[in-house]
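Suppose you are handed only these lines of text.
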Amino acid sequence: MIKKTWLTQVAAGLLCSLPLAMPLSAATDPAADLKAFQDYFKKTFPSVTDYEEFGNGTYALDAVSRENWEAIEEFPPYEIALEEGEKLFTTPFANGKTYADCLPNGGVGIKQNYPYFDKASGEVRTLEQDINKCRTDNGEKPYGWKKGKMAALMAHIAYTSRGNVIDVKIPADDPRALKAYEEGKHFFYSKRGMLNFSCADCHVSSPGKLLRSDILSPAAGQVTHFPVYRSKWGEMGTMHRRYAGCNKQVRAKPFKPQSRQYRNLEYFHTYMSNGMKINGPGSRK
Ligand code: HEC
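From them, the structure of the protein bound to heme C can be written out as follows.
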């Protein structure tokens, strides 16, 4: 049985690296968490000498996959989405307004600041939410959250943000922000599904190991290139589409895209890549 093989491989990996599965401290200090996270990945993958390389996921760890990927990136499969996204971005709504009228900095080069804690609602907000709010505020229908036009628009905005350093903030003067971060962190380290795996089990303890035909990527830098064109999907997808896919892999019931759970997860997950550069949109196997 194929399933048994891949599970056994990852499970064996986990046994070896279990003490390292939780590199973060119990008391919540996001800056200390980030430092421990970075130190862990540096120590575990000494061959990755440029930390920025983790933003290339699996391709930072495996030379053969990297060659294939570099060949694909010569004619990037996300190019069509980029064209569509730019068109959507610049075409005015029926009332004459555009996204540039609602988003910070006219919607250009802003991806590195998302998600953010919104004091007015007391919740974490994502760029997808701000895009759809801009639409509904201007009398347009919201887009779906996982692919299609939303992913194309996200790709365009990520592209204008390339090279910008991820800078997710957890405002110290609002305890609700830290609580949201904690909830995301808890999600990341909690075992779930019939297979009883946490995000960390696969993406902290087991990067570089094979899971079925996939080489697991490191959690560090996992957010830098979203949205992503994934060959398996044959199209673009947003981060919450990916979260749902990873939840389903362990036979857990996925949460809804843009649910509080996934937004808080994204808050923690992105904070753990603070200091890295946006290199989206990306392409993956
Ligand atoms: C059973 C193992 C497993 C678990 C648990 C798991 N994933 Fe994944 N994940 C994968 C595999 C396999 C892939 C595809 C190969 C890769 O890029 O890692 C993947 C891909 C991803 C990617 C895309 C990486 C890229 O470079 O594009 C992200 C982001 C991600 N996972 C996040 C998560 C999060 C967050 C969780 C917890 C909710 C999680 N995963 C749980 C196996 C897992």
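What can we learn from it? The radius of gyration is 19 Å. Confidence is low (pLDDT under 50) at residues 1-9, 11-21.
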